[in-house]
Structure prediction request, 196 residues.
Amino acid sequence: MEEATETKRDRVRRLLIDPLKADGFRFPKGVNAEDAKTRLDRLADDLAYMTDDGLSALRVSMRTKGEGAARCFWPMPATVLGLAESFQSRPLAELPQLLRWFASAAGGAALLGDRLAAEYWFWNQHKRPPVKPMDKKVVDQKAAGWRRRVELAEDRLARGHSIPEDDARWLAWYRGRVKYIEGLVHKSNEVTEDAA
Prediction:
């Protein structure tokens, strides 16, 4: 008899959701069974990036984070996801919002403004796009600093000089990151042109 393969969602249920249910976590009376299942499925999908150890640590912490007078109701997703980030950060490449951002007009604008790596850095720090005026200022400053660093390194190399090993590693990282993000931007443009 073949064993069923455990899905990522099943693994999160086994290591986090089911044990918390056994500890008494539930939804308030106004939440029907179908809605409760949908919410927990979405939570499981959002936490599927975590390792087994990360999910176990989250479970232990969550046991004391229930809501309501009896502290037995499931916390809001933002609470759970924020707590999960403190145990294990979600890889940036798995954020659908990031992919949509760079596939949108914002990605094209970042490409034209030579801010791709800086915007990616901002996403990595904040898990959201740089839309506020202060966010944009921070990104512009980071991009300008990195452009200057690239110019200095490339100038030294063009004149036949070597650059420090740390600078060489950083330059390779920077070029790789820009190439990766350019791929996200160009992929969206290809899809748009194919649809036209």
